[in-house]
Amino acid sequence: MLSRVVGRLSAIGLWRIAALLVVQTVLLLTFLVDWKVPPVLAAGFLVTVLLLDNPLWAVGAMLAARLLSTGTMSFFNIGKITIGMFEPVLLLALIALGLRAVFDQRPLWHSWPWRAVFVAMILWRVVGLGWTDKVSDGAKEIIGLLMIVATASVILAFVRTWEHVRAMLWWWIGASVAIGVLAIFGDAIGLTNYATQWQASESGGRETGLGQQPNWFAMNLSFAVPAAAAFGLVQKRAVLRWGLLAASLFIFLAMMTSGSRGGAGSVVIAGAVAALGQPLFRKWFVRFAAAAGVLMGLVLLLNLGDFAKGFTRIAGGLTFLFQRDIRGSNWAACWGMFTDTYGVGIGPGGYVDNLQKYSDWLYNSVYRYPHGIFWGELAHTGVIGLALLAGLVVVIARMALQTVRDTRGTEAEALAWTMPASMLGYFVWSFVEFNIYEKPFWEWLGLYTALHLVARRAQTTGHPLPVWSLGPK
Prior knowledge:
Elements: H1 2-11, H2 13-33, H3 37-51, H4 55-68, E1 76-78, E2 81-83, H5 86-104, H6 115-128, H7 135-158, H8 162-188, H9 214-222, H10 224-233, H11 238-256, H12 261-277, H13 279-302, H14 305-315, H15 326-340, H16 351-355, H17 360-363, H18 373-407, H19 413-429, H20 441-461
Antiparallel strand pairs: 1-2
Helix pairs in contact: 1-2, 3-5, 4-5, 4-8, 5-7, 6-7, 6-18, 7-20, 8-11, 8-20, 9-11, 9-12, 10-11, 10-19, 12-13, 12-19, 13-14, 15-18, 18-19, 18-20, 19-20
């Protein structure tokens, strides 16, 4: 691949001259915006050259960067868009995709089951810019959704076989373990401590990972827990099997240090759903519950730092879920925005600008966002937005059922069950937390969509996936 690019450029002298002029012009213009941009672009170019012959590495790096990226790691802002670890890696992957499209005639625009509904959600937001009170915030939200489309396109372009799906899952699990290690041991030795950056963590007892709001930290880790355990069950080598099972338990315990009841609940829901579907999962779900219970008991008994504080908060149940009525007040404001616009919604963005009308206290606090995807869609996109959101859920559910059928009796069946189970846990959690464009749910969905398409091709081409029984073991 790289040799073909070099060959094309060397064969036509004008190409090289034009390319140099374009690069120099871009670097000069970006230097005027921010002096840090040219070094980042130069480093990105070097990495791009290295990734041209293996763009799957770029996809894996993109997934890992999404999990690791936080607001504390942002390089600079372009308007209201924050540029951190994820955006440059996504750009590299898009460049690799573009070059593959030119030299290998690989399509840029792939078809996937939820594409049409998602594009309709974006278009409705574009229409909503006509009446929103904050066009800049609405545009930022639309750009965030367009980045999801770009991410899905990259994943589906390069993750095309069962081996590719396995490789990307290793990247995801490895990044999740790394986050847990850095968060726990980094705080212990004083290298990472971002508690003062989040009001939810100022009083202690809520781990922020690498600088995320505690619930976001828990969300980033929650997806890998059931899938890592299921992935371990289909490994033929004992060291990989037990290593993945241990990794699953470690990731779960690391996310528990966030003190997030929603995070703990979403993992329990995901595990229970998978257990209902498969006797093998049910057996291991009971084992994991017992092991986690014993470890939590020891942590609380020995009062082991952030672990004990986080577990204590979670063990408190729902007592403080509606503390100071923060969520309820935001939901009431969302309902008011919905009814006051006769079900049309206030348009994308603009929530904060409208909030003062419904609650002056919330408007002047740090809690001024809808606290739930359903509530955000209710306020911003109204009836049509809610209908499109319901359509998205239905399409994903149908895709998951088809994937389970297509992978039955194969190695992929374990992930066909547990990956959507994680998404279901997140879906339940999303009624009290998050916005529609939150990551890394969409990257997880993109990877699962790749698995769905791999399984579909295996059925239609007559080349089945590796056989594996999920019967009781």
